[in-house]
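#structure-requests
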Amino acid sequence: MPQTAQVNPLVNLFPFILIFVIFYFLLIRPQKAKEKEHSKMLTNLNKNDEVVTSGGIHGTIVNVKDKTVILRIDDNVKMEIEKNAVAFVKKIQGDVQQKA
């Protein structure tokens, strides 16, 4: 009877390890960096910053609290929202507006 060669079990796991490494560098790592950048932006919110919420509402910050901010949407229209709802801060440089 011919003997079959034993295959190392780690060789069978190699494709799964390779897939995990690819997922880590293409999906997990960039998402963590984006979350870190967003949380840094939220901690640096200041009065008079022009922001856009995740719902698409544009406004100017009137007051910053621990977990919420009060936005001025229009004359005599203010709205209190969670800090996490702020998608990005608009920076005005001359006539050009850029996302931060």
